[in-house]
Amino acid sequence: MKKQNNKIKLLLILFFLLLTTGCTLNYDLVIHTDNRVSESVSFFRNKNDVLKKYSKLKDVKKDEIEKSKINYYKKQYGYSSKYVRSFSGINLIFYKTRASLSDYFEKSIYRSLYTDYELIEIGNTVSFKTVGSYTPTGIFTSENGEVTNDLAKEIKVNIQFHKNVLESNADYIDEFSNTYTWVIKNTDDYKNINFEFGNKKNYIAILYYYIMTNLDIIIILLFLIIIPSIIYLFFKINKRVKNQI
Q1: Cα(149)–Cα(115) distance, integer angstroms
Q2: Which of 46-60, 134-148, 189-203 has the lowest mean pLDDT?
Q3: Do 223 and 179 reside in the same domain of the chain?
Q4: Are 50 and 89 in contact, with CB atoms under 8 Å apart?
Q5: Are residues 161 and 224 in the same domain?
Q6: CB neighbours of 58 closer than 8 A, spacing ≥ 6?
Q7: 164-177: per-residue pLDDT in tens?
Q8: What is the Cα–Cα distance from 82 to 111, expressed in whole angstroms?
Q9: 125 and 218 inside one domain
Q10: φ and ψ at residue 25, rounded to 5 degrees
Q11: How far is CA 56 from each of CA 25, 51, 114, 220, rounded to the nearest angstrom?
Q12: 196 with 120, same domain?
């Protein structure tokens, strides 16, 4: 267990070394109906910040230090990765789907934030809560142990549930997508994460998830359907007008 915690702490250090270069960290989880957990960690770098170091956005992928970080995540934690470029910057995304809740929580990057956790599955009800002391110093401090605002000021943990949530201590709730958000700040002295969910499926949340994860394909399909339909109607109406003349 100690060896595993050391690995997780090392991963946390690497995550927040990235944050010191002007990154924004987004951490999202999806708990599916079969209790699989999809994990996505994305580092967004603003275009202006990137161009201070590189001549082009695409040059980020060629950087040897960047490559070594990606290879570390892939080798040690089995992450897949991808770059997504946009007009505003570049996003480096690590993602993985774990087979079960216990597998995720034992290997989660937030595992070292707490002494331990309790995951209880009784019948169709699953409850989770962190246990023991909250120890954020490994995340929000610099190498010499001083708290600094140059590192992460807060972490937002977003969990989307595909089943009904019975109770939680989330800071924010998006009822439409069934997403619960916990905000962990570097000034917090005490912060635990607790939730419990049942077996009833939330079909709106499931539909929302599949639309958002397949948005590009949906847009292309709509384009392929709508454009030909408009062209067909145009010629049909035009033909009818000519016949009337």
Answers
A1: 25
A2: 134-148
A3: no
A4: yes
A5: no
A6: 85
A7: 999 999 999 999 99
A8: 24
A9: no
A10: -95, 125
A11: 22, 6, 41, 29
A12: yes
* Same domain? 59 vs 156: yes
| Nearest alpha carbon to residue 204 among 215, 216, 212 | 212
Mark whether 185 and 239 lie in a shared domain: no
Pair 127, 196: CB distance under 8 Å: yes
φ/ψ of 31, rounded to 5, equals -100, 110
* CB distance 101 to 125 below 8 Å: no
* Amino acid at site 93: I
Tokens 């929302």, residue located:
208
Clarify whether residues 187 and 116 are in a common domain.
yes
Amino acid symbol at 9: K
Asked whether residue 185 falls in the same domain as residue 240, the answer is no
The angle that helices 2-19 and 64-77 make with each other, rounded to 10 degrees, is: 150
> What total of structural domains would you count in the chain?
2
Domain interval for residue 46: 2-205
Cβ atoms within 10 Å of 191's Cβ, excluding its own: 17
- Given a cut of 70, whether residue 236 has pLDDT beyond it is yes
pTM, full prediction: 0.70
Q: Are strands 23-31 and 154-161 parallel, antiparallel or unpaired?
A: parallel
